[in-house]
Amino acid sequence: MKKYIFIVLLFAFWSCEETKEEDTEKPTVTITSPQDGSIVSDSIEITCMSTDNEGIANVELWVNGVSTGVSDSTEPYSLHWVTSNLDHGVYTIVIRAYDINDNVMDSNPILLTVSNLSDYHLFSGTFIDEFDDDATSIVFISDSDGSILADTSFIGNTSFSLNADKTLDPPPDKINVTIVSRISGEIQIATNIGINRGSDWTWYGPSNEVEVIGESYYTFTNIPDDIYRVILTTNGNNNRPYINGTDTYSLSQYENNEDVLVMGLMNDGTALYKVIENVSVSETHELDFSNFLQAEQRIINNLTGKECNWVSHAGLQSEDSFVHYNRYRLSDGDDEGIAWTSDQNFITNYPPSFSKFLLGLTVGQYNIPGEKSWYQKTHGEMQESVRLIDGDINVISSDIDNFVMEISGSEPDQWGMELKDLSSDLEWNIYVDLNTTSGSIPYLPSSVTEAYPEINRASFVMTQVTLVDFFCAENQEEWHLLYFNTNSYYGDYCSGKREVSYFLE
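Request: output the structure for the sequence above.
Response:
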């Protein structure tokens, strides 16, 4: 009897094993966030809902048909996807669900556009005392075709960061930065072409305008027969009259108790000078030329092979900045025998008390259509010679929508264009990286045309191109790093430059 019962129980056990069904039901899985078609960046959480008749083991993130290895086994399901190192573009996202019996099911795919901020950051800028507090200023970014990528408007001092539209393709590695504003009542337009995307610049305004508070007055006696002219100068203003013994001559002043330098330029190329200390406005000073001293003279050797065209010469004390209201004007002009010798070497005269100088020398045919001129400017010690820049620029096309340049030489760091609206006399200065020799000037965003309707892009024509060598930088990028990171007048940290300019016909 017991044997019979055992056989029955064994049969019943075998019967239960044979009737249990295998689990083949697949789980369900639905992506709940983000929405299909979303734009994502940096790191995001992708969430889903997943159910199964017997239980979910885990869910896993798949991108473009490849497992990321990112999974979650605990509800609510959330998968952390890092996009920072991914290329911009559209990615197919699927979440795969696994149940406890190894059944697998994929969610419906969604498409996500990866668009990281670093891909779209264009430019950061800060302005400190650069523009008028009552004028609208505009900065806009464009590409090599002139198309607008971003812009911003502001008044006075500001800081900003400009990003491109993240629904579009990433912007180019090189961008154009244009600034439009009104300074002292005049519209100023300047563009830098070929700038690294993501650049961060700060404009400092060390050369703020100062106001004239009044005038002082001067008469002259014992005037030498061979005098050419007189220069009356403070360290910020000057007057250059041809004098006689009867008239009174004025000099504008920024402040009282200023030292006034009087330079008498002689027809033989020499100069006499006198310093009047602590001059205040409204004072009248009678100057006797018999009390003047002989100025020191330096002949600047012209090594260019070109005829002299212009000399501009200023002197400073050792502690003074080169900013314009700290310069005593010593001489300038374009007269043979006064500004240069008969054998085309430049003449400079100065009181021995000055220890540093600003000197600008021009040779060639300045501002003559179809001709070129060369310029050398120095800040610091008195230079001994002037030479040409080792470089040249030729215009293949002056079309503002398709300019083409040919550049040669070992010294150039940057080239530039001067555009003019011949109907309004507006000027547009453009500075260009040497690697950019063709392209289009920027189009104007609506922010510019609304604030300054008098600016008409189509009216501008190219009138001049210039090639530049900075003494203090090896290329344009290095010059920008110096210029936009130094809170002082550029003449105080850069010893000068050489240029060649071509004036278009």
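The CA atoms of residues 83 and 241 lie 71 Å apart.
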